[in-house]
Amino acid sequence: MTGVDVAFWVFALAAVWSGYRVFRTDSMVRASFLLLASFLNVGAILVLLLAEYLGTALLFMMTVEMVVMALFMVMFMMNPAGLNPMEMVHQPRLAAVAGVVTTAGLGLVAVVVDFPDAPVDPAAETIRALGTELLGGSMLVFESAGVTLLATMVCAVILSAARGRYGDGTAGSVAPPLEPGGDHRPEDDLVGDGGGGHHHHGGH
Amino acid sequence: MAVSWLARLAADAPTPVFAVAGVDAWGAVQELRGDPRIRLAATPRHAAVLLVAGTILAGHGEALRRVHDQLPRPRAVVVWRAPGTGPAIPALAVVDGSADEVVSAVGRAHASILADPTRAQADLLPDEEPTEWRGVGPFGQGGEGMMGGTPYGRPMAMTGDDRDGLALDQLHLTLGPFLDPLPPGLTLDVTLQGEVLQDVAVDRAAPPVVDHAAPGDPATPAAAARRGLHWLAHALHVEGLDALAGRAAHLASQVAVGDVAADRSADRLARLVTATGVLRSLRGVGAVDGADASDRWRQRLAAIVAALRDGVVPRALEPAPSDDAALAGLLVGVTLTDAVSTLVSLELPGVLRPAVAA
Amino acid sequence: MVLETVLLVAAVLLGIGVWGALSQQSFVMLMMGIELMVNGAILAAGGLWAYAGGGAPKGQVLVIIAMAVMAIEMAIGFALVVAVYRARQADMTEGIASMKG
Amino acid sequence: MLSAFLAGLTVTAAATLATAACVVLARRAAGAMSTAPQRVPVLGGSQPETHAWSRFHVRYYPMTLLFIAFEMEMMFMYPWAVVYVEEGLKALVEMGMFLAILSVGVVYAWREGAFRWQ
Amino acid sequence: MTTLPPVVAVALVVAVLTVGVYGVAVVDRLVSAVVAGWMVSAGEALAAPLRAVAVAVTRQPVTTEAPDRILWVLAPAAYAGLAAAALAVVPLAPGVAVTDVRTGIVVFGAAEALAIVAIFLHGWAPNAPLPLIAGYRFVGVALSYELLSMFVLIAAAIPAESMSIGAIVESQAGLWNVIRQPLGLPLFLIVAAGVTFLGPLDVVDSTDLAGGGAAEDSGMQHLAWSAARAAMLIAFSAASAAVFLGGWHGPVLPAAVWMALKTAGVATVLVGARHVIARVSPERFVRWAWTVLLPLAFLDLVIAGMASL
Questions:
Q1: B 268-307: CB under 8 A from E
Q2: Which of A102, A128, B95, E240 could be disulfide-bonded to C15 (CB atoms 3.0-4.6 Å)?
């Protein structure tokens, strides 16, 4: 067993264990960052597989995504810190069976199917090749990713905003705030928005 | 011995002090920021010595004892200029003299508990959980169900409506009376959702009868300038500019002894404060009658400079906002950050009387 | 470390993700399960790229697309959670299911 | 390459473990646990009614959603930067287009007030 | 690309961080004395860090009600580890890098992103209101400055045709990036101020929340956190020196000395900024970062791109 093998098994076990712990912990913050730990270990395995850019970028991307994940988990889950131990599952047996079947099926495929033997050249300039590919062969993928991300941004803003040009998102669903001072009306916001804009232009 | 060597090294450091001050001694405590031998900590957790200065109201006895207990061990208490009324607190040293004397006493108290931890002061409140929780409930942590019970001694927060339409959890907190960033004698009952204040109730200590360092209309330009500098030292500290706060406090002590060089220093200090951008960052915060926190800072700086350079006693202005309800109204709907900045910039009656240039 | 072991680990991660996604009641926990499945998929793609794909740049693009899909899923998913919570004060999958009917 | 990563990992682990050991040992050495009145969170003398851990209303949540979509573009930009000099104007134009598209999203979100505390 | 053996690497990074943290504490003492108008002797300034350590060691680390103990210990430990990781990818002299890998700026960015996690957890772990609020408002600020950091580092990678920080230093043999891409360094320093939460971006351990994220830290817990923060400041100073100030390039003096001088210079500027620049409110910074600083980062990229055509 080489050093790379040892490292692989350490990272692999850590990735699987933290992935499992995600659904076994009561604290939503711990769950989010256990998922992050799973991603970090997979990133480390990608580095071992000589995909150093994908591996390191995975660390970076998943970290910020899991920070956002933690914010939303805490925001919307009851008992977010798990102060009271809880069991929030349904159909546990079906889920367990489905999980085992998935693992077994895919594992069988991994063992049985004869994959072509074409290992990556350790001396290859993989990052440069990726850059050339993005600007050349996969240019369309790259640009359509831009459009998709734009659509995502617009959708996310429309869906999450309390109010906007499509009217008050809260209309008819929630009682108005109790405190008159805390009441925040959409028309105030329109004024405030304009003010923000002027401030920006005035400052620069 | 290694321990005594460590104790001596620690005793030579600026003593970390958490100060609890009555309204009458608050200015004098702020002046201590100008002394490099001590460091006024923002939280009792960072302090080794508790300094209790001036008149503490009888109603604040439990709060005082709680702050005392929150200091990590070994801890010492130094009492300064206590009128003898108010809650009693066991102290390692009682000082009635000048700032210099109290700083020396604080240093000695720190050195003494380091040299002999048995001299350190024990907790004042009983070692009791807020609610008995051990062994209660299905998991023995005091809770029941998903959100119920008192896990580890306290209930969980519950939801409340919000301007954003997302009914998430509210925190009901009492801030003060000895929270470092708040003006003295002020207690806020707040309801927070996220970091936005949804509801505020202001509780102000009745101005105590005072006989020294009295807040009131200052009769002389020097007294007015000194009071302004006390405010400035605290305000700069809250805005994260501790070193400049030290300069302001040092200037205040120079004014106190009638140092003639103080007038030029005041000009320089005002320019330095402006250069930090604090006036810009406070623009639009806590506007009352068309004047925001930035305007109020500017007025106060001008008043300090005018008092020291031109010998003008600043004209007292009506405090704004006029009553507690108006003050609470000013804080509702803003973030805790902005609320603190607003409170620090305001002239609060019964807390500090106004001093603004004519 | 050979291709089979990498794929096996990926399969285990996918399995845990399926188990988590199916068993959790909460919508945000369901999203965690999906994330873990994508995690396994990324690992499998990385393994295939390294051992069977000869380091073809297209394989790397595929992994990047998987990550983009995950980001989009998260952004839209959380925006939906906000919208649903605003409307119904519910964060459960069953709460969302009841909206359909 | 892998040995370089190993060295970095070793350094990181060493710093992490050393710091953790300091804190844990200091907590052990302190002996007696904090007493109940010591454990009350700092609020200037008062007690909180509830635990602080709660469904915390993150006031900037629209910004975070925008962020995770926007931040994806970094995945494309790193390799792009490496081949930029080689590819020249083509790289500039393609990335310019990509960023222009994403900027529309940021401007839209700004117009909708997504960067304000909700 | 030379790589040091792991033992030497660990020793080197530990030595640089120890000297750096000590130096930051001394400079902080000196700068604050100058700003406050105090007299401070050299001996006193040099002794100040040791005395602060002695004070911390003699204090009891307090816990709160039902804190997350593991995360509370992990937060300063991870923050210090990330400072070491960030420093590891920065070459300190030609050929003297612990981890000068081909994806240096990505690893640096990952360390910076994970630092957000550490700082958030530090606020979350004590289960106390003021640290919690501080942790949350930091994440808002952090997600806004994070983009800037990525853009300016990518702009620096363009002329180097590599993501390795060693290659970025080599690419500045003729002209430093601070001149070639004038917007890069100021934007990167804003990021550094954000990650180490000092000066204008001190929204974490800030006095307006009575100590904020550190309000419940005492004794060694607080010391470890402060030291980790100073270590991160050193890592960012070294990265600024390498990526924007030409790293080890400079006349007469040996390469490593130039690198040390530049790192110390940037660290001094950052420590000084802490005492003379007022805090901006998180809400305003977020708006400002997305509407003003982000376009500036685009501009930086365009300048870098045009210069390399």
A1: 272, 275-278, 280-281, 285
A2: A102
ipTM of the complex: 0.90
Give the closest-approach CA distance of B171 to chain E in angstroms.
Answer: 8
In CATH terms, is domain C3-100 a member of 1.10.287.3510?
yes
- Residue D42 touches partner E, C-beta closer than 8 Å: yes
Q: How far is CA D58 from the centre of its chain?
A: 15
Interface contact E193, partner A, CB < 8 A: no
Distance CA B278, CA B294 (A): 8
Identify the pLDDT of residue B218: 60
pLDDT at E28: 92
pLDDT by residue for chain C (101 residues), tens only, comes to 788 899 999 999 999 999 988 888 788 888 899 999 999 999 999 999 988 887 788 888 888 988 998 899 899 999 988 888 888 765 544 444 444 43
- The neighbour count for residue E42, using CB atoms within 10 Å, is 9
Task: Kindly list the partner chains of chain A, i.e. chains with 3 or more CB atom pairs below 8 Å.
Answer: B, C, D, E
Q: Do chains B and D touch (3 or more CB pairs under 8 A)?
A: yes
* Cβ–Cβ contact C12 with D under 8 A: no
Q: Are C and E touching by the rule of 3+ CB pairs within 8 Å?
A: no
In the chain, the amino acid numbered A51 is: A
Task: Decide if C82 and B166 are in contact by the 8 Å CB cutoff.
Answer: yes
What ranges do the domains of chain E cover? Answer: 6-307
Q: pLDDT tens digits for E10-22?
A: 888 889 999 999 9
Tokens representing residue A41 in the block: 């270990």
Question: What average pLDDT score do residues A55-81 get?
Answer: 90
Q: Does D118 touch chain E (CB under 8 A)?
A: no
B273-282, D28-37, E192-201: segment of lowest average pLDDT = D28-37
Partners of residue C9 in chain A, C-beta under 8 Å:
12, 15-16, 45
Domain locations in chain A?
Answer: 1-80
Secondary structure (DSSP) of E208-264: GGTTGGGTT--THHHHHHHHHHHHHHHHHHHHHHHHHS-TT--SSS-HHHHHHHHHH
Which helix (H) or strand (E) element contains residue A132?
Answer: helix A126-135
